[in-house]
Amino acid sequence: MKRTLPLIITFLVGIFMVGEFFIPHYRYRIWTAEFLEWGLILAAAAFLLGLINLVQVNLPKVIHRDKDWGYKLVMLVSLAATLIIGAFGGQARQDPGATYKWIYDYVFVPLNATMFALLAFYIASAAFRAFRARNLEAGLLLGAAIIVMIARVPAGEALPLVGDRLPQFMNWIMDVPNTAARRAIFIGAALGAVSTGLRVILGLERSHLGTD
Fold first, then answer.
1. Tens of pLDDT along 148-158?
2. Residue 144 falls within a domain, yes or no?
3. How far apart are the first and last CA of the chain?
4. Residue 198, domain member (yes or no)
5. Residue 45 and residue 80 in one domain
């Protein structure tokens, strides 16, 4: 029963939520909105469980001085300080000049920007590997990338003969082949999400129960 009951609840709730797309009655939508509200509450509980798990995983490594324990100590201290300051700050914690607001604006935001800035180097490395014209598809990708990059800089428009046509060709590449490829990727991702949802509803996918 410990495994069967969660599967039954998942099946019933999943079928009920899917019914929203086929039953346009307003009372039905009120109930589905209520279920979504409960979903947000469960998501908040999941964040709390994640916080507890984070401490359980990293605190023993700090105590035993395992590898990179100093970074984990900084993370736990920052976590505790932010949590305490945010809890005691009340509703005014987001006001300008508040300590919690200062931590967010001048510590978290710069660190977040730094992480995304580092991604640029990984993207450049991946692009360098992808743009090696080893076959026809890679050659087409390389040619389209060169055209788009040249057309987006002022030097590209100054090129003789082709400078005026490069922006038009670039717009065609972005609007037609690029849009078609993006839509294909989105359709594939949507089909994958639907298939995963059906597997969860039918009980074929049980990883969310901590099994299999």
1. 878 877 776 66
2. no
3. 17
4. no
5. no
Nearest-CA neighbor of 70 among 62, 59, 78, 81? 62
Q: Using CA atoms, how far apart are residues 121 and 79, in angstroms rounded to an integer?
A: 28
pTM above 0.90, yes or no: no
* 97-to-80, 82, 85 alpha-carbon distances in Å: 20, 15, 13
Kindly list the distances between the CA atom of residue 139 and the CA atoms of 90, 167, 178, in Å, as whole numbers in the listed order.
58, 21, 16
Do 53 and 104 fall into the same domain?
A: no
Please give the Cα distance from 43 to 2 (Å, whole number).
22
Q: Counting beta carbons within 10 angstroms of the beta carbon of residue 182, is it exposed (0 to 12), middle (13 to 18) or buried (19 or more)?
A: exposed
Cα separation, 78 vs 55, in Å, equals 12
Q: How many domains does the chain have?
A: 2
Range of the domain at 25: 1-64
Residue 77 lies in a domain: yes
Q: Read off φ and ψ for residue 140, nearest 5 degrees.
A: -65, -40
Say if 172 falls within a structural domain.
Answer: no
Residues 58 and 98 in one domain: no
What is the DSSP secondary structure assignment for residue 204, as one 8-state letter? S
**pLDDT digits over 59-111, tens only?**
998 898 888 888 889 889 988 888 888 888 777 777 777 888 888 888 888 98
Question: What is the residue whose two structure tokens read 């991604």?
Answer: 119
Are the C-beta atoms of 86 and 104 separated by less than 8 Å? no
